[in-house]
Specification:
The complex is a heterodimer. Chain A is an alpha+beta fold. Helices cover about 20% and strands about 35% of the residues of chain A. Chain A has 8 helices and 19 strands. In chain A, the strands form 4 sheets. Chain A has a 6-stranded mixed β-sheet with strand order 10-11-12-9-3-13. Chain A has a 6-stranded antiparallel beta barrel with strand order 14-17-16-15-18-19. In chain A, helix 2 crosses helix 7. By secondary structure, chain B is an alpha+beta fold. In chain B, the strands form 2 sheets. A 6-stranded antiparallel β-sheet of chain B has the order 1-2-3-9-8-5. In chain B, strands 4-6-7 form a 3-stranded antiparallel β-sheet. In chain B, strand 1 and strand 2 form a beta hairpin. The chains are: A alpha+beta, B alpha+beta. The interface between A and B is medium-sized, with 18 and 14 residues.
Chain lengths: ~375, ~130
């Protein structure tokens, strides 16, 4: 049964997407643009070569503030929060005691004892309940600012040049995974040099009521340079080429942080955090499965999310995400496979509509930008 | 959007009889729009026969895959070889250069086919 459009949640840019003739889809309960009339491939290429503008207002924002804020965020996440400088961002996760994922998120250090946590849209309620439950033991407040906050992402090699004329904030000095506050097109924003596409770019957070004005200003400023509105369709192919995890695919409550290849966000020596004991034990034992990148060998063999990895007629793993790659020009994917098969150059088989097809394990990320 | 000289299936294929017992088959404008950018069309060999409604191939876009079902029983005489290098023709010209197979009809057209008006009514109900 599908939910009718009237029951879906809408971002502040809903009318703007419709005016641009976007194709709208139900994305985790949100009415979101999957593509505009230019199409997923053209939008994908625009982000890789020029720039694309995404509505990511559906993402959730929680503000944690007070004398116990740092201690709470350290307790809730495996990455080393105390190492974050003011104005720095890092990628991390909320983990259960068994090391599997509640969600993945970004942590922004706004002050010594003030953090902005940015979580996935589909997990806002679950995450907020999780944070609140654990916050009770810490001296800080947690506010869900999601409904009051809009967010757009300008991504692509031309992002700095497009955005700079709209702001007095000097953009070039902002390092990758750093942020600042400033005005863009006269609108107060958190300007963050982050993204989910593997390209240079900025994520701009502003008041929900200002989002449409900001969107229109950036879109107009970038149009002469080739900026296009970009939907969730190319957001997925862009992040997949860079092996960036998507909740519900590479990570969820049945996969732990180490097998997901996210050991780099797990700082076991930082002190206690939820999930640490399980991950210490997992690290000491041989990992039964690993996330690998693959490409299918025939053009006609296009693997898709959740298809089985098979061997001699038995399922031995599963595809997490897969698609024809616009940048690489072949059909790629990510899959969990038994560790003994997880070697670059090795062969696996994917079952596509009842047919076992050959795939080769290849290095990841599939795409890396030239800096 | 829905040419009057074609007949349509509820699954969004079209069939265009040439009048000599042969017909072209493809997918509709509505179908190509729903799929988005087409990247591969998997078609049968010439000589293969299919019943009405039987799967004869698949069409893959960046984001999804869809089965192709034969609108009316027949034998494949020819496949559109140009789609191997230019699958985007399905998006750009679904009733012209984006045709998929030419068939020799086995008897009369399937009675389940819709005319343009009935098909348009079907898709307008689906998209609202």
């Amino acid at each position: 049964m599908s939910v009718s459009v009237s029951e879906l949640m809408k971002t502040p840019l809903n009318a703007a997407h419709r005016a641009l003739n976007a194709k709208m889809v139900d994305f985790g309960g949100w009415d979101m643009p999957v593509q505009y009339p230019t199409g997923i491939i053209a939008e994908h290429e625009a982000v890789r070569t020029k720039a694309g503008l995404f509505d990511v207002s559906h993402m959730g924002e929680f503000r944690v503030k007070g004398p116990g804020a740092l201690a709470l965020v350290e307790h809730l996440t495996p990455n080393a929060v105390s190492k974050l400088a003011l104005g720095q961002v890092h990628y991390t996760a909320f983990l259960y005691e068994n090391g599997t994922f509640v969600d993945d998120l970004l942590v922004y250090r706004e002050g010594e004892q003030e953090f902005l946590l940015v979580v996935n849209a589909g997990n806002i309620d679950k995450d907020f309940a999780w944070v609140q439950k654990h916050a009770a033991a810490f001296d800080c407040t947690v506010v869900n600012e999601s409904p009051a906050t809009g967010q757009i992402a300008l991504q692509g090699p031309l992002a700095v040049g497009i955005l700079q004329p709209l702001t007095k904030t000097q953009l070039e000095p902002i390092g990758y995974y750093f942020f600042t506050h400033g005005e863009v097109a006269g609108i107060k924003c958190l300007i963050s040099r982050t993204g989910y596409t593997g390209e240079d770019g900025f994520e701009l957070y502003c008041a929900a009521a200002d989002t449409e004005k900001l969107w229109n200003a950036v879109l107009a400023a970038g149009k002469p340079a080739g900026l296009v509105p970009a939907g969730l369709g190319c957001r997925n192919t862009l992040r997949l080429e860079c092996k960036m995890a998507l909740y519900g695919h590479e990570i969820d409550d049945s996969i732990h942080a180490l097998e997901a290849g996210l050991g780099w966000i797990v700082k076991l020596d930082k002190g206690g955090f939820i999930g640490r004991e399980a991950l210490l034990a997992a690290k000491a034992a041989p990992a039964p499965r690993k996330l690998v990148g693959f490409k299918t060998l025939e053009k006609r063999d296009i693997a898709r999310d959740h298809m089985p990895v098979v061997q001699a007629g038995k399922q031995i793993g599963f595809v997490t995400s897969a698609a024809p790659s616009p940048t690489c020009g072949f059909n790629l994917g990510l899959a969990y496979v038994p560790t003994e098969l997880a070697k670059v150059g090795g062969r696996i088989q994917i079952e596509i509509r009842g047919r076992a097809v050959d795939a080769e394990i290849i290095p990841t990320p599939f795409y890396k930008r030239q800096k | 959007m829905f040419p009057a000289d074609l007949k349509y299936t509820k699954d969004h294929e079209w069939v265009k009889p040439a009048g000599d017992g042969t017909a072209l088959v493809g997918i509709t404008h509505y179908a190509q729009d729903a799929l988005g950018d087409v990247v591969f069309v998997d078609l049968p060999e010439a000589g293969a026969s299919f019943g009405a409604g039987e799967e004869f191939g698949t069409v893959e876009s960046v984001k999804t895959v869809s089965e192709l079902n034969m609108p009316s029983a027949g034998e494949v005489l020819e496949v559109n070889a140009a789609l191997a290098d230019h699958p985007e023709a399905v998006n750009e010209d679904p009733y012209g250069k984006g045709w998929m197979v030419k068939i020799k009809l086995a008897g009369a057209l399937s009675a389940d086919l819709l005319d343009a008006a009935a098909y348009e009514a079907l898709v307008s109900a689906e998209s609202h």
